[in-house]
Amino acid sequence: MDYAENILGTIGNTPMVKMNKIVEEIDALVLAKYETFNPGNSVKDRMAVKMVEDAEAKGLLKPGGTIIEGTSGNTGMGLALAAIVKGYKMICVMSDKQSKEKMDILRAVGSEVVVCPTDVEPDDPQSYYSTSRRLAEETPNSWYVNQYDNLANREAHYESTGPEIWKQTDGKVTHFVVGVGTGGTISGVGKYLKEKNPDIKVWGIDTYGSVFKKYHETGEFDEKEIYPYVTEGIGEDILPKNVDFDVIDGFTKVTDKDAAVYTQKLSKEEGFFLGNSAGAAVKGLLQLKEHFTKDDVVVVLFHDHGSRYVGKMYNDDWMRKMGYID
Length: 326
Ligand SMILES: Cc1ncc(COP(=O)(O)O)c(C=O)c1O
Description:
Layout: E1 16-18, E2 29-34, H1 44-57, E3 66-70, H2 74-86, E4 89-95, H3 100-108, E5 112-116, H4 128-138, E6 142-144, H5 152-168, E7 175-179, H6 184-196, E8 201-207, H7 212-218, E9 250-254, H8 256-270, H9 276-287, E10 297-302, H10 316-321
Parallel strand pairs: 2-10, 3-4, 3-6, 4-5, 7-8, 7-10, 8-9
Antiparallel strand pairs: 1-2
Helix pairs in contact: 1-2, 1-5, 5-6, 8-9
Bound molecules: pyridoxal-5'-phosphate.
């Protein structure tokens, strides 16, 4: 018999899928690391379980405890699955720009959801960073995950996502392209791949309104780069400890409109029903096309599933209201 002991045993070993029509103008083999096959429908299941197991091992998370995290949805889903299997309570703190579907999905897997305003400074007491910390201080027997600075996040990708990409491409991968939020995915995968072959290039996808690209290029944390944006899952107004700028060769920024339009295109042209950061990633990949040549093997990682965006990027009324389509 071949079965998993519980749902957490099905995390990882996701497929790699060749991209065709949407990347026609790119003169290289482009492969999608298709992370929605994880049980929580996102790559974040990997790091969620790793962070929980790391906290258990360090004695930070104790039996019957409460896990508290500020999350744009996907990490919360992975943590909620771990909480169910391991017997913890889960509280997710979210900003109000996140889709309603993400909030409903977290409640569906037994999580309490606390919603905070988006348009406040990170150190404002109402921000989702401050609220998560305060709840963790006030709740007895609780553990604040902090996916931004918790380095078990990038270790998960160093231990699982990176080796899978290396093995699935038979060591032929030449470029890795991925959206950057906490930085866990790009830093863990990037470190693993560069240890295997230092010539592999690692590109991050950033968004307008985020500090990453300018910081990487100049070393300056420029507050003028920070303003509200629509794209979900990528870009930051802080520098998370999980971002290892040394393994990143460059960033390209994608507009909110392009990210939304390319989210729809991925679905209609490839049958890839994926989230908003996948649209940003594929548009960013096209912006980088002059970096790729015929024999290159370019891997782009897609974080999450389209079902979380049916009220937004997959809703033409919303797309028209935003001015993204006619
Ligand atoms: C949909 C989505 N895309 C991209 C990212 C960025 O991934 P990472 O946090 O590993 O940089 C996230 C992380 O929150 C996400 O939820």
